[in-house]
Every structure is written in structure tokens, then in C-alpha cells.
């Protein structure tokens, strides 16, 4: 009996040990299937969470940058239709209308709109010349705030004459005389024949100068009444005038 018991005990212990090994193996397998996988999942999650925190410097910067760009684009387009910036177009319209309504110097057409030179915007003087003899120089100065054009030639009337003298056709300039504010234009008047061949010579004490318009027919605006020397000037039937000239030298050369 004792031998039998002795023989069985080792076998029981061996079986028990084998069972223990099997249980341990199963436990290890279960640990690997459960706890091990779970632990790896946590490790992976931790790695995923850590990556953004260590590599993100660029993503946060990129996102604000992109966001700012989009916001700016939205803000830039908004002023065109609404918001305080929407008033800008109205301001521009007002500014663009201002010069047309009144120029830097005032006036209906602005300082850049030329007008016809005539008595109300000019000052006219008449000065007898010693050279050429029997000549008189007319000087017209623009006293207005806008450029004016001196068209054609002066229609002069001495004393109570019923007609104006003819113009020297060859004296016509290449272009219309243009006077900026403060500038002057000129014309000369041949008062009498230098050789005494003129008829109906007489002395006159008053002079009226009329201005032509662009069409060249008739006078426009107000006439000028320049003073003559106290003793008057002598004129005869050879009386004639030059076209308006831009320079004094051109005026007295005829």
C-alpha cells in the first residue's frame, strides 16, 4: 500500500504541476490577448497624442495664417457693399465731381475751361509807337481766372467812325492766341500812311476795341475803351490792323 501511495503521489504532483503550467500558459495568453492589446492601444494613443504636441508648431501657425487670409478676403470684399468702408465710393464720387462743379479758382466751368477773351475778363491799353512811325500797339491782358482765347483781330472804332478798318491778311498767326491768367496778347494799328498818301486824315480822341468770337463774325462780350493821348491820334483812310499776336515783336513787325 505504501508503495502504491508513494508511486501515485508523484504522478498526482506531476499532473498538478502540469496543470499549473497549463493555467499559467492560459493566463499568459489571456494577458497577451487582453491586457497586452489594451496596453498597446494605450501606447499607441499616447504616441498619437504626443505627436501633435511635439510636431505641431507648423499646424497651429498654418491654421491662423490660412484663417487670417480668409478673414481678410471677407473683410476686403465687405466694404464694397456695406459697412463704414462702403462710404468710400461715395467720397470718391464727390471728389470726382468737385473739379467739374467748380475749379480751383471757382467758376462754373473750373479754371481749366477756356473762355473767349473780351472786355469783361481783360484789360486793354493803347500806346502810340515811335517805331514803326504812325503805329499804335494794343495790349490785351487776361485779368480773369481762366485761360482765354484771342480770336481773329481787333475791331477798332476811332471816334464816331461807322466802320472798322480792315485787317492785314498776311499777319494771321499759325494758331489762335492763348492767354493764361496774367498773360498778354498784342496787335498793332497802322494809323496813317507814312508817305502822306492817305486821304481824309483827322485827329481822334477816343477808341473802342471789340473782340471777335470763334466764328469770326461779329463781336462778342464787352468792348474795351483804352485811353488815348490827350492830344489824340492822327488817322487816315489807310488805317488797318494786324491779327492778334502772341508776342509784341510779331505785332509791331507789320
Describe this structure in words.
InterPro entries: DUF4232. Residues 1-32 form the signal peptide. Residues 32-119 are annotated as: Disordered. Keywords: Signal. The protein has 254 residues and is α+β, with helices and mostly antiparallel strands. Among the domains are: 1-30; 115-252. The chain has four helices and eleven strands; from the N terminus they run αααβββββββββββα. It starts with a helix and ends with a helix.
Sequence stretches where pLDDT stays below 50 over 5 or more residues: 1-110
Summing up helix and strand content along with how strands pair, one would put the structural category as alpha+beta
Q: Helical residue percent?
A: 25-40%
Write down the overall mean pLDDT: 71
Using the CA coordinates, give the radius of gyration.
55 Å
User: Counting H and I runs of at least 4 residues, what is the number of helices?
Assistant: 4
Keywords: Signal
Organism: Streptomyces galbus
Protein name: DUF4232 domain-containing protein
Briefly characterize the structure.
The protein is of the alpha+beta class. Helix content is 36%, strand content 23%.
Write the layout of secondary structure elements.
Layout: H1 2-54, H2 58-77, H3 88-101, E1 115-116, E2 122-129, E3 135-142, E4 148-158, E5 177-179, E6 184-190, E7 202-204, E8 207-212, E9 219-224, E10 233-235, E11 240-241, H4 248-252
Parallel strand pairs: 1-4
Antiparallel strand pairs: 2-3, 3-6, 4-5, 4-8, 6-11, 7-10, 8-9
Pfam families: DUF4232
Signal peptide: 1-32
InterPro entries: DUF4232 (IPR025326)
Amino acid at each position: 500500500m505504501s508503495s502504491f501511495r508513494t508511486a501515485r503521489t508523484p504522478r498526482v504532483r506531476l499532473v498538478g504541476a502540469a496543470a499549473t503550467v497549463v493555467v499559467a500558459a492560459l493566463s499568459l495568453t489571456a494577458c497577451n490577448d487582453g491586457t497586452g492589446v489594451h496596453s498597446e492601444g494605450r501606447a499607441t494613443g499616447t504616441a498619437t497624442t504626443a505627436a501633435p504636441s511635439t510636431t505641431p508648431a507648423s499646424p497651429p501657425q498654418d491654421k491662423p495664417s490660412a484663417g487670417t487670409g480668409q478673414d481678410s478676403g471677407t473683410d476686403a470684399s465687405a466694404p464694397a457693399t456695406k459697412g463704414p468702408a462702403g462710404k468710400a465710393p461715395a467720397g470718391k464720387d464727390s471728389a470726382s465731381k468737385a473739379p467739374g462743379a467748380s475749379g480751383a479758382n471757382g467758376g462754373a466751368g473750373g479754371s481749366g475751361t477756356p473762355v473767349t477773351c473780351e472786355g469783361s475778363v481783360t484789360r486793354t491799353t493803347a500806346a502810340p509807337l515811335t517805331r514803326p512811325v504812325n503805329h499804335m500797339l494794343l495790349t490785351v491782358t487776361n485779368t480773369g481766372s481762366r485761360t482765354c482765347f484771342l480770336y481773329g483781330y481787333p475791331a477798332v472804332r476811332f471816334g464816331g467812325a461807322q466802320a472798322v478798318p480792315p485787317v492785314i491778311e498776311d499777319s494771321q498767326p499759325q494758331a489762335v492766341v492763348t492767354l493764361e491768367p496774367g498773360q498778354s496778347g498784342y496787335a498793332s494799328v497802322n494809323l496813317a500812311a507814312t508817305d502822306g498818301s492817305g486821304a481824309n486824315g483827322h485827329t481822334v480822341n477816343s477808341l473802342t476795341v471789340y473782340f471777335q468770337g470763334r466764328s469770326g463774325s461779329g463781336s462778342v462780350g464787352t468792348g474795351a475803351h483804352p485811353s488815348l493821348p490827350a492830344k489824340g491820334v492822327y488817322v487816315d483812310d489807310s488805317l488797318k490792323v494786324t491779327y492778334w499776336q502772341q508776342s509784341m515783336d510779331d505785332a509791331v513787325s507789320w
